[in-house]
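Please check both lines for our workbook:

___
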Amino acid sequence: MPALYPPAKVLVTGANGFVGCWVVYQLLEAGYAVRAAVRTSDKARTLTTQVASKYSPELFARDAFECVVVPDIAAEGAFDEGLLGVEGVIHTATPVRFDLDDPAEYIEPAVKGTLGILHSAAKHSTVKRIVFTSSIAAVADIIRPPPATVIRTEDDWNDSSVELVEKTGKAASGVDKYSTSKVKSEKAAWSFYEENKHTLSYDFSVVAPAWIFGHMMLAWTQMFQVPAPPPSSPSAIYNYVHIFDVAQMHLRVLGIEDAGGKRFLASAGPSNFQDWYDATSTLDGGHFRLLGFETLHPPRTLRPDEEKEALPAHTVFSGKRAEKELGIVYKPLAEMIRDIVEDFGGRGWLKHLEN
């Protein structure tokens, strides 16, 4: 299928979420028209107000932005009306919780919501490309380290979490239940696409991000309604990616013809918290002096190359396909940390560190 270029109209689901909101902003900046789908009228008003504060009234005058309310993405035909006149879809909406008891509470909304939008899009010949936001949780286990360091790519699936949830049910961890929902929803989408692509007007692609960090377009105060966790071990290893790069990858998948029908991991690679501590040493002034990272962990005692060799076994989620085929240049840790701290500081969320 051909790539989509501005001013094509794009439906963004989960548009008030961390990823969805950034996707909306980058689409508007690039000149696309956006139809943003959220679950309540209150969320639609909040997002519309935020967009209006950033862009000129001309944006609304030329119908370049609008919000639609879809209360239940898993309901049959939920997106039938929302897809009228749309050429592209970026489907970011999914339940992101880890405290539900029944695995079905994770799996059914994710699978039904994803298949539902594919079925609805099949009724609209204007739709040319759908980009689905998956996760590295669909690619490999994200909570148990492998027996030896291993590289995971777009060819891999997290079958271990699925098997564990099928075996233990409600006793499985929330992360395993969430991971299973990501595996099952993405696999269901690929199956539907492969079985029906000869009759569909659109092609289908996937972006699977690592742990996403960066500043927020909207504030979620519920982040601060639970006790803060203890400082993480400096040896804990995470594959990270900046939110800007994740959103940009969605746009590039939408706008590059050869990206159709492909899966892309969004990952700048692994890092441990020693790397985070070290990265803050390159940042000066402002709120960085408040973080007190130097009190959380002593200075590095090994050379970086020696420490990498001494790290425990871990999974490396490779983002090289996106670098090669989409031209993505991942933002480094220091820039990501700077954006997080400046965002939190600007919102007044670091005042407790001043005492």
